[in-house]
Amino acid sequence: MKIILASKSGVRKKILDQNNIESQVVGSNVNEDEVKVSLLAEGASPMLISKNLAELKANKVSSKTPDQIVLGADSVIDIGGELISKPKSRDEAFEILQKLNGKKHQLISSVCISKNGSMIWNYTDASTLTMKKLNLDEIKVYLKKVDDKNLYAYGVYQIEAGGKDLFSKIEGDEDSIMGLPVKKIKEYLSSLKC
Question: For the chain, which domains are there?
Answer without folding.
Answer: 2-192 (3.90.950.10)
